[in-house]
Every structure is written in structure tokens, then in C-alpha cells.
Specification:
The protein has strands at 7-14, 25-28, 31-34, 40-46, 49-56, 63-69, 79-80, 91-97, 102-107, 114-121, 124-130, 135-138, 146-155, 165-170, 176-185, 187-189, 203-206, 209-210, 213-214, 217-225, 231-240, 244-249, 254-260, 266-271, 278-285, 288-300, 311-321. By secondary structure, the chain is mostly beta strands. It folds into 3 domains: 7-80, Immunoglobulin-like; 91-170, Immunoglobulins (Immunoglobulin-like, Sandwich), CATH 2.60.40; 176-321, Galactose-binding lectin (Jelly Rolls). The protein is rod-shaped and about 135 Å long. The N and C termini lie far apart (99 Å). The relative contact order is 0.13.
């Protein structure tokens, strides 16, 4: 009996950019082979005839090649597979903020062909973050504002995930509000009202007769003041009856800084001297070290008497740096 001759089919499989593709299943019926690291495959013992080979790999489009064998091996059955599937989106995005920067972090998707994450801030493209970095720190922001990061993933073959993953976060205010009141001499109503910016209410500071002496002496404290070249104490207030002297503690004594004399609700700004910021530690952040400080402020009615007792209406006290 005469034997039937058999032949071989071999070739290489490439990806979108012409790189040789490993672990591609090449199959025709029961005959199959997986490409090696070099993208090479070989299927043996085929008779003369026409065959329809399939080429498949997870993440790539399956494709086909019709091959005819006619008395010889086919050593050039090459095929290109295309990855047209974008990677999944990032996960668990969150933000940490200070007055000057926001640091966003996330988890990359598990797609092995993820290349980078596109970063947009308020719809303006900023950069591409390489796979594995999983954070973006924006250190050029202004305080007390909201910013939105928008992200989308891109794989090695430039497939872009069209689903945006967004996160909106706010920088912290550089305004540090009054945190406590020490009632030395006098009465204070509604402490909390002087801890908010224009909340529609005020704290009322009024003298009482203490052993025949009518004098208001209320000390306030502001804390967690960030480091900067200039710090300004901002007040929103009005007085009734008497004027009030604002004093700031310089570490060894009280400085007379200004006189509050507006009888309608008004603003007053006082630029602080360096010695009026009392340091109590440093907070390390992405924007550099931030020195935490506090200031002591005292309001005095130096003219109080039984006949003339003044009142100070304080809407808020805060310090900002610039």
C-alpha cells in the first residue's frame, strides 16, 4: 500500500505593532499549536488540501487564515492579531488635600497590557501616569477651591477606555478660625458664632462689674496656622459703647495692634509680626514642611466704667497666609 504524504504548516503570529505574539492558539479541527515566546508555531501531518486555521488569544480579536497545501510544506503562514479591547477603568480613587495641593490615589485595573492612565484636571489634560504608579499629586492649586480629576486608561496598543472615572476634591482653606475663648473678665455669649465666616450670627463680648472695675479682657486663640511669608489676622466685627484695643502676644508681652471703632459690621486686617506666631510643631506634606503655629489675641475695653460699658460684636476671627 502506498503511503499518503503529509506536510507541515508553520509561521509567526504578530500583534498590532508587529511584535511577535506568544501563547496564541493556532487550530484547525483537532490539529493545534500554541505560539512560542518568539511567536512561532508549527502544525504537522497535514495532507494536501485547503484548511481554515483560527488564531485566538485572550484580549485579541480572533482571526482566520485559509491555507492550501499542494505537495509541499507551507512555512510562511504568518498572521497578525489585533487587540482592540481597552483596559478596564481604575478603581477606588480617593484624595488627600492641603491648602496648596491635592494628592489622588487609585488602584490600577488588572489588565496585563495596561500602559498608562490619562490625567485631566478640570477638563484640561495634564499628564500620563505610568502603570503601577497609581497616584497623581497636583501641587499648583489655590486654597479653599474644588478641583476635579478625570481619568481614563490606555493600553499598550493605544486602546482608550472611553469611560471616565472622576473625583472632585477641595483644597483646605488657609483661613484658621478661632478655636477657643478664655473669659478673663467679662461675659461672652455664643462662642461658636465667632468660629464661622459670616454665618449671620455674632458673639457678644460685654464687661461686668468685677470689684468695681469695668473692663473686658477676653483672650482668643487660633491654631494650626500654616507657614507662609505673610500672615494676616482678619476680623469681622462692630462695637457699641466703647472702642476696643486688639492686643497680640509676642512671646513675652502683649502688643497693642489696632483700635476697633466701627459701629457697623466691618472688616479689619492686621498683618502679624513673626514673633506673634508661636510655633508648636511641623507637619510634613508633599508641598514641603508646614509649620504649625498658633496666635493669642486679646480684646480690651480700656475705657470701661460704670457709666460707659462697651460691647464687642465679633462675627469671626481668622488668620490667613499668603
Amino acid at each position: 500500500m502506498k503511503s499518503i504524504p503529509s506536510y507541515n504548516v508553520s509561521g509567526y503570529v504578530f500583534d498590532n505593532v508587529g511584535a511577535r505574539l506568544e501563547s496564541v492558539l493556532v487550530q484547525n479541527g483537532s490539529s493545534q499549536s500554541n505560539t512560542s515566546a518568539s511567536g512561532y508555531y508549527s502544525i504537522t501531518n497535514l495532507s494536501n488540501g485547503t484548511y481554515n486555521f483560527s488564531y485566538s488569544k485572550a484580549g485579541f480579536n480572533t482571526d482566520y487564515l485559509e491555507i492550501t497545501i499542494s505537495g509541499a510544506d507551507n512555512t510562511s503562514a504568518n498572521k497578525t492579531l489585533y487587540d482592540t479591547t481597552p483596559p478596564a477603568s481604575i478603581n477606588t480613587i480617593s484624595a488627600t488635600s492641603t491648602p496648596l495641593y491635592i494628592n489622588w490615589t487609585w488602584s490600577d485595573p488588572s489588565d496585563p497590557d495596561l500602559d498608562h492612565v490619562e490625567i485631566y484636571i478640570d477638563s484640561v489634560f495634564k499628564t500620563n501616569v505610568t502603570r503601577g504608579w497609581q497616584f497623581y499629586n497636583a501641587s499648583y492649586f489655590a486654597p479653599n477651591l474644588t478641583y476635579t480629576i478625570s481619568t481614563r486608561t490606555v493600553d499598550n496598543y493605544s486602546n482608550v477606555n472611553t469611560t471616565w472615572v472622576n473625583n472632585t476634591a477641595a483644597t483646605l482653606s488657609e483661613l484658621t478660625y478661632v478655636s477657643s475663648f478664655i473669659n478673663d473678665t467679662g461675659t461672652v455669649s455664643n462662642f461658636s458664632n465667632a468660629r464661622n465666616a459670616s454665618d449671620g450670627a455674632v458673639s457678644v463680648f460685654a464687661e461686668v462689674n468685677a470689684s468695681g472695675l469695668y473692663q473686658l479682657n477676653v483672650t482668643t486663640n487660633t491654631t494650626d496656622i500654616p507657614d507662609a511669608s505673610i500672615h494676616t489676622l482678619e476680623l469681622r466685627y462692630n462695637v457699641s459703647g466703647d472702642n476696643f484695643t486688639v492686643q497680640l502676644w509676642n512671646g513675652s508681652s502683649w502688643n497693642n495692634r489696632t483700635t476697633l471703632n466701627d459701629t457697623s459690621l466691618s472688616y479689619r486686617n492686621i498683618t502679624l509680626y513673626p514673633e506673634e506666631l508661636i510655633s508648636y510643631g511641623t507637619l510634613a506634606g508633599n508641598a514641603g514642611s508646614i509649620n504649625n503655629s498658633y496666635s493669642l489675641v486679646r480684646y480690651l475695653d480700656l475705657n470701661a466704667s460704670a457709666e460707659q460699658q462697651g460691647k464687642l460684636y465679633l462675627d469671626y476671627q481668622r488668620i490667613y497666609n499668603h
